[in-house]
Amino acid sequence: MIIVMKTACQESDVAEVMLRLDRSGLKGHLSTGVERTVIGVVGVISAVPDLRERLELMPGVEEVIRISRPFKLSSREFKREDTVIRVGDVSIGGDQLVVMAGPCAAETREQVMSTARIARAAGASILRGGAFKPSTSPYSFRGLGEDGLKILAEAREETGLPLITEVLTPEDVELVVRYADILQVGARNMQNFILLDEVGRANKPVMLKRGMSATIEEWLLAVEYILSQGNRQVILCERGIRTFENYTRNTMDISAIPIIDKLSHLPIIADPSHGTGKWYLVAPMALAAVAAGADGLMVEVHPNPDTALKDGAQSLTFEHFQELMKQIAPVAAAVGRTMAGKRA
Amino acid sequence: MIIVMKTACQESDVAEVMLRLDRSGLKGHLSTGVERTVIGVVGVISAVPDLRERLELMPGVEEVIRISRPFKLSSREFKREDTVIRVGDVSIGGDQLVVMAGPCAAETREQVMSTARIARAAGASILRGGAFKPSTSPYSFRGLGEDGLKILAEAREETGLPLITEVLTPEDVELVVRYADILQVGARNMQNFILLDEVGRANKPVMLKRGMSATIEEWLLAVEYILSQGNRQVILCERGIRTFENYTRNTMDISAIPIIDKLSHLPIIADPSHGTGKWYLVAPMALAAVAAGADGLMVEVHPNPDTALKDGAQSLTFEHFQELMKQIAPVAAAVGRTMAGKRA
Amino acid sequence: MIIVMKTACQESDVAEVMLRLDRSGLKGHLSTGVERTVIGVVGVISAVPDLRERLELMPGVEEVIRISRPFKLSSREFKREDTVIRVGDVSIGGDQLVVMAGPCAAETREQVMSTARIARAAGASILRGGAFKPSTSPYSFRGLGEDGLKILAEAREETGLPLITEVLTPEDVELVVRYADILQVGARNMQNFILLDEVGRANKPVMLKRGMSATIEEWLLAVEYILSQGNRQVILCERGIRTFENYTRNTMDISAIPIIDKLSHLPIIADPSHGTGKWYLVAPMALAAVAAGADGLMVEVHPNPDTALKDGAQSLTFEHFQELMKQIAPVAAAVGRTMAGKRA
Amino acid sequence: MIIVMKTACQESDVAEVMLRLDRSGLKGHLSTGVERTVIGVVGVISAVPDLRERLELMPGVEEVIRISRPFKLSSREFKREDTVIRVGDVSIGGDQLVVMAGPCAAETREQVMSTARIARAAGASILRGGAFKPSTSPYSFRGLGEDGLKILAEAREETGLPLITEVLTPEDVELVVRYADILQVGARNMQNFILLDEVGRANKPVMLKRGMSATIEEWLLAVEYILSQGNRQVILCERGIRTFENYTRNTMDISAIPIIDKLSHLPIIADPSHGTGKWYLVAPMALAAVAAGADGLMVEVHPNPDTALKDGAQSLTFEHFQELMKQIAPVAAAVGRTMAGKRA
After folding, report:
1. Averaged pLDDT score across all residues of chain B
2. N vs C: which end of chain A shows fewer Cβ within 10 Å?
3. pTM to 2 decimals?
4. What is the biggest distance separating any 2 CA atoms in chain C, rounded to whole angstroms?
């Protein structure tokens, strides 16, 4: 931490800051430059809550600058090697490219079963599908609840594909853990800290989507909630951020993929369905994500998107999904990845 | 709802759309212009889930345009007269300007008591203070929990000021209801729909903060969750949105105040402490909010901001708060408001 | 400037950085903390182009942090007292609140004359109006050019109100200077550096609007172009920034008003017409700007907004403008301002 | 165009709107639904300036909705086949992937020559380099001017690579046309309409960068300025937009690539150097752009980035550029593209 004093600060201001540091068990390292007086802080800063904000309020202080990143357990500095998460036969975060596919929401047994079969046949290796759905309006479909989980579990049994499904609230974690192989925490819950604590105590991998206005730093801090509860199996998922552009539902931040890879040892997945909100943008953005180094994709597929109860506009038909899988393979190969699933 | 067909659409495309409407129990009203073929939809559209998205996927369709706003119970069309919410002696949403003041978080009995006394003496009419605190990092202070609620309740008793305090998770609603006069749902939880359902069943007014990347429409849809559960006592609170500007923590959207007043009958409060993140911007932005028509203000006050466990940088000292209250009175008067509290 | 080294940097990396500083005529001040090695830089940093970026590329360097603001001539550190700009009888930046009013674009002699008379009678003290209009589409109205300037000058003669009008391109500066009392540079040209150079050499005050995605720092750097050419008469104008919110055309950043007041000695004006894009938001946002400390307002007025060739939706009728002026006076008084114009 | 009336509108309001349309030479098509009264407008709407804004101001009108896109000459509806632009031996917009490489700014003859040679040897097919540089601060390097153009032209002669270079102001167009094969208009000038007019009259292809807060629609309207002056050789270039994320200089909007491909027949290029601002993100984002369907890339290369006078932090070394070119080839092949340049 570095304290920058104002050009016009008094000597007594500097003395006060040095005293404050001393009382907090820290040491100030004074440096008087042509531009400004600057104080470097030495000691265990994290032991003093909100030290930075407090110092910024002192007279004569211009700015206090943090020089360590606030996330720890998720950082490459903490763990240099990639974290690889195994779910059934699938490895997420290694050389393989993992495709998670399925409907946005479980609606009927038929819909889930047919989608799961097609997903597997086309080379997907994980089944996605929601039983608890967050919805902007209270008048929209909110999911089938436990009945949906049962249908999804049945599709898992039949196809052998591990299941990822969303959990919305701390009370439901125990229930969802019984059915899912990976717990998903959605974008709107990225800073639902009580839920993060709870999935941090679960014994299943967690995929945490980026909040639609979350910085990368905030996202990694949200991950830190899960990791610090003991659950070290966390996957990140980029799904678009909110910008002024209104042609797409969100602006998918492809650069988050190489940035996460640089800052963190955890795997990163891309969701071009939510990332764009339009089915005809899913394929080009999926290819872009793979080329940029994503460890996997999450794609919405529906037997009949125009009758879907949720997110039909961004869901692929079976035909489009099969075509996408054929397009992905050579791009994955071009960046040194093999496909995790086996095409029928 | 209006369906705009592509310039190059086929007659069969139009026929298909008309047929689909017919099967959904709706009627299409065809209009063939110089520019485009357009179909007006007549009937109970809300009975057909996601009709808009489905239609957009049909061949020949360029765009489907919604012509009703999706929120209902909160709208001026539903209820023309202002909703005025009474809490103790205070009326929120009427002619009075209501100031809610207090510490960001309850830290100690001393801190809460002294702040509450000063707040009342300076003319505040509601006490604010948090016992459950959301925090970006798991390593920061997260509040005193029920102990904090007890301290806050004691301050309420002594000063007679009603208490507003935050609830973070559905499980805690019952507990917080026992201590609070108004439940606060924070910005990060604006789309925590399970929590919204739960406070919608509570028998206390709820103040819902705008999410930091929420549009006004999404905010009013979140309100709709609460209203549709039966709780009609909802207050909105603008607290800044996220933009590219990084001088301030958030960009306070003052225009949300007159917009909410136009679209909705519910009261709107402004929080310049979170809205800016810097104490020296609180006073000018508080005055701006009052001039723009806010029904009240929420302001963070702390006996000693530079030792605050949370949000010290945006908290006012007692002196600054007293000065602010003096500045507010003439601006409130200039826009036809009286101050709700009584200055000692 | 401060150089933060990586946790895992080599001693030789530090030595290389120290050597580089030495060769650049600067001195490094080494500080080895618990967290990181940090090097404070002492010397005339501005003499070494892009030093920061270069240092960031060196091995072992984590980050290079600037500790001086990059704008100089516009800063409070350079000049402590408010700059007050006199135009005719009007002082901008002092105790008076200055209202600039008139049509978006000069369309006809009648329209300009009637608007100017009403503006003056209602208490405006400067006439605004455009002869060269930037327009998003090439198929829209682009202004009357010099004919428009002549009409505006005639209105200035008759009413005695000084004229502010926009200049779009360096070649037109000489022409516009002959007619205008204040040159306006619009939001889309905030970083048209050749134009900034040119108005910086003009002998008339310049009002520089904030670019719709400009940070406050970039805005003050654009001002710096004008000031550094010798023209010290610069007025800033906040007119809304671009955010995800789409209910309004822009999100007016009222907090820019107190921030500019803190960082700079130059006057700051608010434009609620462009800031919102909707006429019914102009009055509440104008009042908010005054309450937040703006030195003046710029407001679009039109005899018949629904036939305006440009920006009708955000223009006030004569009646609405007169009403607004009556509302402003008490708010201005409440924050210690007198009105610059005289109401008839 | 469709006019949506308010729920509570009067019959006389509807009559007034119908009358207004009639007087404007248009026809209203009335449709009375369960939800709202809606009026479809038939006739040559573009003949009536700002009709939409005017109608929105009439009593009883809720909203006026545009149903045609405002850009014409650049749209796929106007011209279905891809526009392919030939510059020397290179075709932009066809099957080939075109790489434009070179320094941000021409600094010295040596720097330009060595970079041009490396660029060609590695497979680039167009040389980029700036002689007129926009710079946020007036105290930074602003380019060598015509001397820079001469150096760049010399490099073009020697290597045979066509030259793309930026023009900043209308007065310089004639000069730059003498040296350049493609004129570049930068992001900050995307809405410098006078400059767009001028390059629209030039006899050379123009590459127009997206403004950093421009919507895709505004970008295509800016293109329309150039096209409507007669110059049909326009290339678009995505270079990142401004968002709240501050880890990168901009957020590169990869989805703009498939969107432009859908909406327009013009070629689209990606600039990952400006799009990210960090050299180590250039390669993954370049690959992503190619996978998403970009017609080419623009990349900054410098013999010695850490001594570059401009944008060193985002420039690739020769080694990194050579490596990038090797990585691009298989990704380009995977999406069916051949490389335009020939590797030595």
Report:
1. 91
2. C
3. 0.89
4. 77
